[in-house]
Amino acid sequence: MEETKKPFLTITKGNPDDTQVAALTTLFAGLAAAGAPEEKPDRNNWGSLSERLQRPATYNPNAFHNVTYF
Predict the structure, then answer these.
(1) What pTM was estimated for this model as a whole?
(2) Nearest to 33 by CA among 16, 10, 12, 8
(3) Is the dihedral of CA 47, 51, 53, 54 positive or negative?
(4) Of 12, 16, 46, 56, which sees the most CB atoms within 10 A?
């Protein structure tokens, strides 16, 4: 059994010539190829709710004990 494929582009009104149909086909094929980005960018969790609900770090007076220029 052969599968019938749907046409890529159907023009329902007007009488375009071959050049106009080729231009529309190129336009839509380019838009379909661009599509959505393949990978999602890394998510920036700055200011997320989970960080706001955590207790703040406690003060440590010995944190920079060996640093002489502070």
Answers:
(1) 0.42
(2) 8
(3) negative
(4) 16
Q: What residue type is 67 in one-letter code? A: V
Q: What is the pLDDT of residues 25-37, one digit of tens each?
A: 899 888 888 876 6
For residue 30, CA distances in Å to 6, 10, 35 come to 19, 17, 9
Residue 17 region by backbone torsions, left for phi larger than 0, else alpha for psi between -120 and 50, else beta: beta
Q: Token pair for residue 4?
A: 């019938």
- What is the tens place of the pLDDT at every residue in 51-64? 778 777 777 777 77
Distance CA 23, CA 66 (A): 70
